[in-house]
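Hi all, long-time lurker, first post. I run a small reading group and we've been trying to get comfortable going from sequence to structure in the token notation. Rather than ask abstract questions, I figured I'd post a concrete chain and ask someone more experienced to write out its structure so we can walk through it together at our next meeting. Sequence below, copied exactly:
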Amino acid sequence: MFSTLISTDELARHLDDPRFAIVDCRHDLADTGAGERMYRVGHIPGALFMHLDRDLSGPKTGLNGRHPLPEIDALAATFGRAGIGAATQVVAYDQGGGVWASRLWWLLHWLGHRGAAVLDGGLERWRAEGRAVTSAEPEPCSAQFVPQSPAPVASADEILRHLDDGILFVLDARSPERYRGDVEPIDPIGGHIPGARNRPHAQNLSPHGVFKSPPELRTEFERLLGATSPAKVVHQCGSGVTACHNALAMTIAGFPGSRLYPGSWSEWIADPARPIARG
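-- Answer (accepted) --
Happy to help. Here is the structure in token form:
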């Protein structure tokens, strides 16, 4: 079972394995139809497509962030239609670094499905190695996905209660300039949650676009967290997507058990009473 990452070599050996479900998660925040168009042009053989907004997020209310979590029953139905059952090994991939694929990885683990991994290096590495792509879209055999009790997540109210007591270690996965509030290209207000620390998700990757080794990641997270238990770590970003990349990196490093704040910055700023820090 692959529960964090899978290599391109390993996936190539399992392309015809009926126990595997491959999911293309490519996305572009500036052009939300781009991932699906790219999928139709060419994808890893056997891969299905899941859309971040349509399949991997729930309805927006204006107060719950840009990518709220889906309702569990709706998400279980999505997974079932994709042929994901209890024994299915899921491989999620995207353009390259795993930002969008890690959202599917997190959602599956959230509902207790351990056989979920991100393709290390994504489609970019797959293509660079000269491996096959196709425009043929498979017909999945539906399965029954039975969700387990969801893993705990953090809420805005919980973070607000613990802003000054050190109970939580809030980790912001956005770029440094967005964290500081120097620029904000997506959300209407810039800045960060007071007390949050910044670890841009790009720091999880090597210059070759794959995840750093477990020992490298472990050293970096030990330096960042000190004696903080992973259970105290709350990941956030702009909308609860790239934060999953940091959660995956911590798991690779041997620090499982951290939590996601699904609403993240886009939910936090929806209530003007919540404090904002800059710099």
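A couple of things your group might point at:
The two ends are 43 Å apart (CA to CA).
The CA atoms of residues 160 and 167 lie 11 Å apart.
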